[in-house]
Amino acid sequence: MSYPYDHRPIGIFDSGVGGLTVLQELLEKFPDETFIYLGDTARVPYGTKSPATVQRYTIQVAEFLLRQGVKGLVVACNTASALGLPALRAHCEVPILGVIEPGCQAAVGLFQDGALATPDGDRPRCIGVIGTHGTITSGAYARTLALLVPEYVIRSLSCPLFVPLVEEGWTNYPSARLLIRESLQPFIDNPVDALILGCTHYPILKPKIADILGSATTLVDSAQAVALALNRLMGAGIVLPSAQRQFVHYYVTDAATRFREVAARFLPQLNMDAVEVVDL
Ligand code: DGL
Predict the structure, then answer these.
(1) Sorting pLDDT into bands at 50, 70 and 90, what band is 239?
(2) Which domains occur in the chain, in start order?
(3) Disulfide-capable partner of 80 in 30, 44, 84, 201 (CB 3.0 to 4.6 Å)?
């Protein structure tokens, strides 16, 4: 008897293009899953909005995806994960995965599996987190890390100008490099051992950030950890590789052409055929 795999799609969302960095990893890990991606481009950025507003947006987006019949939801936005996850969990019955816990596990894992050496002398291990204003002021990363590794030093910094750099496609301008450098100054003056890219837009800036911070700091992009966590969360519900063609349906809440252009610039391998505009 063959196992009844659940062929319903998995919903994944972000305020804009950032969540595509997570989608790309999920497509690699689950080549036969069907995904529905929504970028809430009419209301990006989430990072500067109040917690109540982000919570309301998060629930509206999730309701849209649930109406499409998804079997699980990936909140591929740190701001929505930090501010909207508890409300979302109380609201929906399908399994829901945020990005904060997997990101924290990935950072801590670097020390625990020996990928990062123990600091010299008595200096405690130090993890930094960068994210939007909403994510950092929520304290979600600091709280999660304090539970996992109370003995580590955790330093958080909001980098509110990084999302517009990505959304505007400015990442390769010399002025962008200056701005990234200036934003990261506290971590240049006083380096952390590992730095969590606590916004799904930031992996697009990863080569620049890595270059600026140098080899003293290891960057943590949570996408791979999210893929592992999704496998655990969905268990047997995940479709195993077969001969099926992989399919993603893309939705945005505004400006589909611009979304496709920005996505094609950073993630050309996603091969976005059609992007549909929806009203939530
Ligand atoms: N990519 C999102 C995050 O991970 C949100 C960026 C924003 O809309 O401010 O936080």
Answers:
(1) low
(2) 10-98+225-277 (3.40.50.1860), 101-222 (3.40.50.1860)
(3) 84
